[in-house]
Amino acid sequence: MAIDTVPPLINAQLTYLITHSPFPVKVEQMWSGSKNPRLLDRFTLVIPYCLDYIRWDVIYNAMYPLAAPDVIFGPDDESFQPYFGGNEKSSKNGLADWNSKDPARLLALILELRAAYVAYQRRRIGEVDDERLKFEISTLVSREGIEMYMSSINDKPEEVKFAVPLLDIDLNKLVAGSTWRHPQKIRLQVIFPVGKKYSTPPAPRLKLISSAELKALYSIEDFKLPSWLEGMCTAEYLIIVEEMLESQIKNAVSSIETRRKLIMALAPIFGRPIEADPVFCRKATFLASSGVFTFLVHFSLSLQFPKQPPAIILQSSQHFNSYGVPIKSPNLTEYPWSPRWEPSKMADRIFDFLVDESLNFKKYCGQLIQ
């Protein structure tokens, strides 16, 4: 049976792009434009932009693998022509001196095009006849990394989105030992209506968005955005949001040590954990026994610890269901607890609770396998 393959030179560039891009790029689909339908030489890239995604088709030719690819932009970006100035094609671009044997060339091309796309959207938005929007842009232009996007209906501007990076802090360096591959960011999405007249301009739509991996440290779902006051501009609002965020991020970093202290306090009672999260200290697993009954104790510590007690799941090492899967207890969260206790007392009270709970769990396991 024939297998679809990506030509080696194309595959090397695509692999390098996926593994070295400073932002997560995904391949949505691959197909063939060759006479040999098994040679996949075309694909769609999903590229993050302005807290959303843009999709670009990259078109190689498997019959001429040394040739540079074509890039087809989205249907809403027909006027985006990054390599044309007037009527003459620019020679200073990533396609002019294409080297198919250099695996980094596709990544360099996509970064170059994305930077041009940022400038293109800024230029479009700057041409919109909207005084409020022009003022907002003037107050934000000095901030690095800001992205903008204008959506239209029937070729008329409808709204403008801003994606504003928050906190001039390298979040990756705040957590010792973190394995985050991409820079962690928190951004504020600000959406303004355009082309409409209001006696009192309405507040923009606001949403706080973070990198997915940052949730291991801090959950932005727990952050309550402050109210937008009448007459306020985005630059003023950002100062308030950043002050609140910085304080909460510092607390989130310090809470790692608080969780670590509980895990360390459990060790003298349960023994050394057989598995633990050494970076964020969110999980730990211990081997325990009650007489001849041995079982695992899984601890899960939320970001609200110590306000919330650890969730505990018991897992038998001797009882299995009909599919051969070890039997586990439901999530245990209702037991004596106070966030004001010292870690050693927390550990002692957990142990006291599990002395009785392990007997109930053993009985539960026996009933399930009967």
UniProtKB/TrEMBL annotation:
<dbReference type="Pfam" id="PF06113">
    <property type="entry name" value="BRE"/>
</dbReference>
<dbReference type="GO" id="GO:0070531">
    <property type="term" value="C:BRCA1-A complex"/>
</dbReference>
<keyword id="KW-0227">DNA damage</keyword>
<dbReference type="GO" id="GO:0070552">
    <property type="term" value="C:BRISC complex"/>
</dbReference>
<keyword id="KW-0677">Repeat</keyword>
<keyword id="KW-0053">Apoptosis</keyword>
<keyword id="KW-0156">Chromatin regulator</keyword>
<keyword id="KW-0132">Cell division</keyword>
<keyword id="KW-0539">Nucleus</keyword>
<keyword id="KW-0498">Mitosis</keyword>
<dbReference type="GO" id="GO:0051301">
    <property type="term" value="P:cell division"/>
</dbReference>
<dbReference type="GO" id="GO:0005737">
    <property type="term" value="C:cytoplasm"/>
</dbReference>
<comment type="similarity">
    <text>Belongs to the BABAM2 family.</text>
</comment>
<keyword id="KW-0234">DNA repair</keyword>
<keyword id="KW-0963">Cytoplasm</keyword>
<protein>
    <recommendedName>
        <fullName>BRISC and BRCA1-A complex member 2</fullName>
    </recommendedName>
</protein>
<keyword id="KW-0131">Cell cycle</keyword>
<keyword id="KW-0833">Ubl conjugation pathway</keyword>
<dbReference type="GO" id="GO:0006325">
    <property type="term" value="P:chromatin organization"/>
</dbReference>
<dbReference type="InterPro" id="IPR010358">
    <property type="entry name" value="BRE"/>
</dbReference>
<dbReference type="GO" id="GO:0006302">
    <property type="term" value="P:double-strand break repair"/>
</dbReference>
